[in-house]
C-alpha cells in the first residue's frame, strides 16, 4: 500500500493537491482537493500499463470549464430541489437557485466549488484520503453550519469506498451528497460494448424540468429495463440519452449490489453498492471541454456518449416526497452515507 501526493495545479489562486492511493494489486485511485474530485481509477492492463476507468481532465481548469460535474463531489444535496425551497417543522427555507428556478447539486456554491483540507491514513489492507470542510450557511446558502467529511478508501480487494459525513450545529439542515463519477471501462471512446444491470424495478416520473412528480414508472416492457444486463448504447439510442432516477429495490450497503457495469470486450467490471435508495444514471451526448485525458485522441472530435455517470443517492427532491427517504440532518447530530465501487477483471470465458 502506498500514498503519493503532488501539486496538480492552481485554481483561483489556490494550490490544488492530487493524492494517489495505491494498493498491493497495482490498482490506484487519485483524488483532488479541489471539489474533492475523484480524478482517476487506474487498473492494470495486459501490457503492464494502467487503464483509467474514469473520465478525467489533464488539468484542474478542465473540470471547471465543464458544467457537467465530471467526477466531482456534489452536495449538500445531490439532484434537484424543486423551487429552490422547502418547508420543515413550520419554517420555510429558501435556497440559491441555479437550474430553472430550482437548486441543483448543492446550488452555485456547493461541495464541488470548494478546495478541501485533507489528511491521509493507511493500514495493512487499505489506504484513505480524508477531505474535510467547515461549511456555514453564508458559504452555500443552505441553513445551518456543518462539518463535512468525505473519505475515499481503496483496499486490497480493489474496492473503492466513499463515505460522506456531516455534523450539524444549532439548525437542522439537508444532507444527501454523491460523487458525480463518470465511467468508461473500455478501450473505445464510446459505450457500445458496455452492459449495465440495475437492481431496480421502477424509475421516477419527472416533469419537463426533471423534477420528480412522485409517481413511479415500472421498467418492465420499457427500454429503461436493466434488471438483467442490457447494452447501454442501444438503450441510449432508444431513449435519446439517459438522465434517469432508478428506485433501488433493496438498498443496503453490502447486501446486494445496486448496479453492475461491465465491458464485454475488455472484460472489466465495476460493482456498485450503496446504503441509499436511488441511482441516477446520466449519459450526456457530449462531454464539454477539450482536455479530456480519458481516451480522446488529441486533435480529433469527440465521440457521442463517451461516459456514463452513476450517482448513488437518496431519491431526488426527497424533501418534497414523503416516500423518497429522509435527507434531514437534525440539530446536533451526525449522519454518514457510504457507496462503493469494486473492480474485477472477468475471465475471458465469462460471456
From TrEMBL:
It catalyses: alpha-maltose = beta-maltose. The active site is at residues 180, 311. It comes from the Bacteria. Gene3D superfamilies: 2.70.98.10. Beta-D-galactose binds at residues 180-182, 243. GO terms for molecular function: aldose 1-epimerase activity; carbohydrate binding; maltose epimerase activity. One of its GO terms (biological process) is glucose metabolic process. The keyword Isomerase applies. GO terms for cellular component: cytoplasm. Pathway: Carbohydrate metabolism; hexose metabolism. Belongs to the aldose epimerase family. Catalyzes the interconversion of alpha and beta anomers of maltose. This is Maltose epimerase. It comes from Candidatus Ligilactobacillus excrementigallinarum.
Amino acid at each position: 500500500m502506498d500514498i503519493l501526493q503532488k501539486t496538480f495545479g492552481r485554481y483561483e489562486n489556490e494550490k490544488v493537491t492530487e493524492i494517489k492511493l495505491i494498493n498491493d494489486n497495482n490498482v490506484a485511485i487519485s483524488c483532488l482537493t479541489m471539489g474533492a474530485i475523484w480524478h482517476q481509477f487506474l487498473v492494470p492492463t495486459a501490457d503492464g500499463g494502467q487503464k483509467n476507468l474514469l473520465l478525467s481532465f489533464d488539468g484542474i481548469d478542465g473540470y471547471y470549464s465543464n458544467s457537467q460535474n465530471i467526477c466531482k463531489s456534489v452536495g449538500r444535496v445531490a439532484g434537484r430541489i424543486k423551487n429552490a425551497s422547502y418547508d420543515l417543522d413550520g419554517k420555510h427555507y429558501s435556497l440559491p437557485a441555479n437550474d430553472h428556478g430550482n437548486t441543483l447539486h448543492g446550488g452555485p456554491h456547493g461541495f464541488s466549488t470548494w478546495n478541501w483540507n485533507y489528511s491521509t491514513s493507511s493500514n495493512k489492507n487499505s489506504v484513505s484520503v480524508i477531505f474535510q470542510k467547515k461549511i456555514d450557511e453564508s458559504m452555500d446558502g443552505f441553513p445551518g453550519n456543518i462539518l463535512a467529511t468525505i473519505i475515499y478508501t481503496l483496499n486490497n480487494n480493489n474496492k473503492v469506498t466513499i463515505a460522506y459525513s456531516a455534523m450539524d450545529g444549532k439548525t437542522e439542515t439537508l444532507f444527501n451528497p454523491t460523487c458525480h463519477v463518470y465511467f468508461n471501462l473500455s478501450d473505445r471512446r464510446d459505450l457500445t460494448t458496455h452492459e449495465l444491470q440495475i437492481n431496480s424495478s421502477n424509475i421516477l416520473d419527472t416533469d419537463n424540468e426533471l423534477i420528480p412528480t412522485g409517481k413511479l414508472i415500472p421498467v418492465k416492457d420499457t427500454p429503461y429495463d436493466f434488471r438483467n444486463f442490457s447494452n447501454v448504447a442501444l438503450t441510449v439510442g432508444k431513449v435519446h440519452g439517459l438522465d434517469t432516477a432508478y428506485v433501488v429495490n433493496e438498498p443496503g450497503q453490502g447486501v446486494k449490489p445496486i448496479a453492475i457495469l461491465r465491458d464485454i470486450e475488455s472484460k472489466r467490471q465495476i460493482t456498485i453498492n450503496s446504503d441509499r435508495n436511488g441511482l441516477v444514471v446520466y449519459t450526456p451526448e457530449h462531454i464539454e471541454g477539450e482536455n479530456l485525458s480519458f481516451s480522446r485522441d488529441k486533435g480529433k472530435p469527440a465521440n457521442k456518449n463517451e461516459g456514463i455517470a452513476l450517482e448513488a443517492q437518496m431519491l431526488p427532491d426527497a424533501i418534497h416526497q414523503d416516500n423518497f427517504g429522509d435527507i434531514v440532518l437534525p440539530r446536533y447530530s451526525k449522519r454518514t452515507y457510504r457507496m462503493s465501487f469494486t473492480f474485477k477483471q472477468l475471465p475471458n470465458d465469462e460471456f
